[in-house]
Amino acid sequence: MNPQVAQLVEKGKRSLSAARSLMERGDYDFAVSRTYYAMFYLAEAALLARGMAFSRHSAVIAAFGQHFVKPGHLPAHLHAAIRTAFDERNVGDYDFAAHFPRERAELLLDRAQEFVDTVEVLLKLEIEQHNRRG
Length: 134
Description:
The protein is mostly helical. It has a single domain (3-133), classed as Nucleotidyltransferases  domain 2 (Four Helix Bundle (Hemerythrin (Met), subunit A), Up-down Bundle), CATH 1.20.120.330. It is built from 5 helices and no strands. The chain has helices spanning 3-25, 28-49, 57-69, 76-94, 102-133. The longest helix is centred in the last third of the chain and has 32 residues, at 102-133. The model has no long low-confidence stretch (mean pLDDT 91).
């Protein structure tokens, strides 16, 4: 795995861990933000592994869907999860009056765990396939 991709994967895992800590403290809006970033970093890592980089979050999310979900490499519900997390993160970060119920934040955290795990497995498989060919 190229070092930048590995760093993004690690950052995604750290973000997920931070989200869990924030959940335990009852900081659900902050947990939702970290949850989104866990998915975002893994989406960036997957795209970077294929030589693609984008400067906007919306472009990363769209490209992730186009290059990984549309061709069937990953299930569509993962693309829906990152899109939902992006919307939730915007509310949590920018709406000072927003209140996230624990159940909603927990559901998003569960989806992020699946996202991180699934994309990490895909990256490892693609590296193995690349090594076998080259």
